[in-house]
Amino acid sequence: MPAKVKAYELQSKSKNDLTKQLSDLKSELLTLRVQKTTGGAASKLTKINVVRKSIARVLTVMNHKSRQNLREYYKNKKYLPLDLRPKKTRAIRRRLTKHEVSLKTEKQHKKDIHFPLRKYAVKA
Predict the structure, then answer these.
(1) Helix (H) or strand (E) segment spanning residue 44
(2) How many separate helices (H) and strands (E) can be counted in the chain?
(3) Interatomic CA distance for residues 5 and 25, integer angstroms
C-alpha cells in the first residue's frame, strides 16, 4: 500500500475499486494493531495514523459519490430526501414560500380591483 492515499486519485475510481481498497486498508490496520500489541517497531506504530486517515478518505469519497448519484437521481423529482435538502435554519425552513406570501384572499382581491390606488396630479 502507498504511504498516503490522495483524495483526488480516489475520485476517478469505481465503487468496486474503492471497496476493495477499503478492505485492504482495514486489513493493514488490523495487522499494524497486532504488531503494536506484540511490541512492533516504532515506524510501524506511526503508520497506524496514516492508515486510519486513508480509510477516512476512502469512506469520504465513497459517501460523496453516493450522495452525488442520489442528487442526480432526484434532480427533476417533486420531492427530495431530507438529507439532500438545503439545511438553512429551522425558522427559514418553516417560513412561507414566495408563492404563499403573494397569495391574496378573495376579499382583498375584490377590494384591490374595485378601489384602486388614486393617482394625483399634484407633485409634493
Answers:
(1) helix 42-73
(2) 6, 0
(3) 10
Q: Are 51 and 59 in contact (CB under 8 A)?
A: no
Give every CB contact of residue 56 below 8 A, 6+ residues apart in sequence: none
Q: Give the HSE-up count for residue 41: Cα atoms under 13 Å, Cβ half-sphere.
A: 3
Kindly state the average pLDDT of the residues 71-90. 94
The pLDDT value given to residue 28? 94
CB under 8 Å to 53, separation ≥6 — which residues?
4
Q: How many residues does the chain have?
A: 124
Q: Are 74 and 84 in contact (CB under 8 A)?
A: yes
**pLDDT (0 to 100) of residue 3:** 62
| Whether pLDDT at 1 is above 60 | no
What is the model's pTM?
0.71
Contacts of 81 (CB under 8 A, 6+ apart): 70, 74
Instruction: Give dist(CA 65, CA 124) in Å, integer.
Output: 63
d(CA 53, CA 103): 53
- What's the grid cell of residue 85? 435538502
